[in-house]
Design goal:
This protein is mostly helical. Helix content is 70%, strand content 2%. The protein has ten helices and two strands; from the N terminus they run ααααααββαααα. A two-stranded antiparallel sheet has the order 1-2. The termini are far apart.
């Protein structure tokens, strides 16, 4: 295994690095799989209620994307840790996991952007898509992201294994023309997605805050999937903020490599930034579980009960003080 891996010039293949703890990767794998499975079950069991309207259809696509990204990549990550770094990625496996990682990141980013645009279109009362059209939009996003992710496997750059030899991505470290082209393409697309998502959400939130009557325009044919239900507004805003905070550092790091500010760097920084980006796939389903309409209703109900009980206690204490 060692000889076959060495000829692919993967720098960490023959390195046994026991200083890297396996617990963070195991926790990411556990919470990523568990959260996305629970979110999928909730979406399926409530399908007759939300009827797969645009918000929930795009949300389902996001959960499926996050789930597959975690399962397909972290299965090999855990093998690497479990072998105490004696097993290394063969080239085909490294190419496969790098493709899945890039595909999952781009697909999730495009879906979050599409959710923001969808809500903005409802605000402008300019909905031109039918419910069935969102299925084609979702598959279109997956196809576009897959085509972009596949480029580094057909000559536009190449795959590379990163510190500490536990994950693969397209090679944005080594100074070659193909790697630079892939890095610039990836970062340009990423920055466009980030800017559009932030701008669309900012405009949407400003309009519904300054004019509360606009909230009614954000309703779909089914009221459950509209911003008017409040949980959708909270969810999309929260997901967007976390998406920008967690994914942008990795994109910036890739750009800095492309412009030769971080020459030949492949160390703990890349591992940390990758784990931040992966947190999107871990946190998104748990946010839906917590911020779904039924959960918010129960939280509000508990809050109101606490207020009522406190008022009752205060009234009883006041009555007790009266002569």
């Amino acid at each position: 295994m060692g000889q076959s891996d060495t000829k692919y010039d993967y720098p960490f293949c023959n390195r046994k690095d026991t200083k890297i703890a396996w617990e963070p990767a195991a926790l990411e794998f556990f919470f990523g799989v568990t959260g996305n499975v629970i979110a999928l079950l909730l979406l399926w069991t409530n399908r007759h209620y939300h009827r797969w309207f645009s918000f929930f259809k795009l949300l389902t696509g996001l959960v499926i994307t996050d789930f597959l990204g975690i399962v397909l990549v972290y299965s090999f990550v855990m093998i690497r840790y479990a072998s105490d770094f004696t097993w290394c990625y063969p080239k085909p496996v490294c190419q496969f996991t790098s493709f899945v990682f890039i595909d999952a990141h781009l697909s999730a980013a495009l879906i979050i952007c599409a959710m923001s645009v969808d809500r903005f279109m409802h605000l402008r009362n300019s909905v031109i898509f039918t419910n069935r059209s969102y299925t084609f939009i979702l598959f279109g996003i997956w196809i576009v992201a897959s085509l972009i992710s596949y480029l580094h496997l057909i000559g536009v750059g190449e795959s590379n294994i990163y510190y500490p030899g536990s994950w693969c991505y397209f090679d944005f470290v080594r100074d070659t023309t193909g790697n630079h082209v892939m890095s610039y393409l990836y970062t340009i697309i990423a920055f466009v997605i980030i800017i559009v998502t932030i701008a669309i959400n900012a405009v949407t939130l400003c309009r519904i805050c300054t004019d509360p009557e606009q909230r009614g325009k954000l309703m779909d044919a089914n009221e459950v999937s509209g911003f008017y239900d409040f949980h959708a507004m909270i969810f999309i805003t929260s997901v967007t903020v976390l998406f920008v905070i967690l994914w942008t550092p990795l994109v910036v790091d890739i750009f800095l490599h492309a412009v030769n500010i971080r020459n030949q760097k492949n160390n703990e920084t890349e591992l940390l930034l990758l784990r931040l980006a992966v947190c999107n796939a871990i946190i998104d389903p748990w946010m839906y579980i917590v911020l779904r309409k039924e959960s918010l209703s129960k939280i509000a109900e508990i809050f109101y009960r606490c207020r009522r009980s406190r008022k009752s206690v205060n009234i009883n204490e006041t009555d007790a003080l009266l002569p």
